[in-house]
Amino acid sequence: MKKTLLLLLLFTFHFSPFTCRAQGRFDATAFAGLNMSQIDGDGAGSYNHMGLRAGVGTSFTLGNDLKSPWRMVVELAFSNKGSHIDAYDRNLSASYIELPVMMSYNLLEGRLRLAAGVAPAILVDSKVTNNGAEDLPSQENFTTFDWLPLTASIRYRFLDHLGFEVRYQNSFLSITKENGSGTYRLFKDNKGCFSRLISFALTYHF
């Protein structure tokens, strides 16, 4: 028992400088809010699908300068996206687990953060209804991965632990498998349906 306690104390002492540096290098944030989204290529054009977005994240410096305004941001989040077509009451809903990776720049002593990057996502659930009736072929037409949603955000921390964030996201690869019609991104062969959203969230900073 004494030997185990001694080893534990030595381990703690040995790694305490690293721990102090890590505490200064990394931060942690939890967030929750609302997505207002649409799907380009589905025949509708307004951000009228409401969905939840919530998760956790961290940011860290890339060099030894802990006061650098440049930080890398990594998050893990649940995000619901989709669209609603009023003309024939068609609802498309797709829920993802996403892993945003962004480069950020801090202003106003860290209270204001500008960030941009990518947010690859894994589909965990999809639902499509037409006039309340389930559309199974359309539900199964969503791709498993959304590899290239580009994202940008502005966050302002108005209290030491509380902030507010606005985020924009736009998929650059189709989120559907079969694409007989739709739109395209960048070049005409990249055709299909593409998720686009504006997100609003409250953030809590540990």
Structure description:
The protein has 206 residues and is mainly β. Helix content is 14%, strand content 56%. It has two helices and 14 strands; from the N terminus they run αββββββββαββββββ. The chain has an eight-stranded antiparallel barrel. β7 and β8 form a beta hairpin. The longest helix is centred in the N-terminal third of the chain and has 24 residues, at 2-25. It is elongated, with a radius of gyration of 21 Å. The two termini are 35 Å apart. The model is unreliable at 1-21 (pLDDT under 50).
Brief rundown of the structure:
By secondary structure, the chain is mainly beta.
How do the helices and strands line up, and which of them pair or pack?
Blueprint: H1 2-25, E1 26-40, E2 49-60, E3 70-85, E4 90-98, E5 101-107, E6 112-118, E7 121-130, E8 133-134, H2 136-139, E9 145-146, E10 149-157, E11 162-171, E12 183-184, E13 191-192, E14 194-205
Antiparallel strand pairs: 1-2, 1-14, 2-3, 3-4, 3-5, 4-7, 5-6, 6-10, 7-8, 7-9, 10-11, 11-14, 12-13
Determine Rg (CA atoms, Å): 21 Å
Number of strands: 14
Largest sheet: 8 strands, antiparallel, barrel
Instruction: State the strand order across the main sheet.
Output: 1-2-3-5-6-10-11-14
Silhouette: elongated
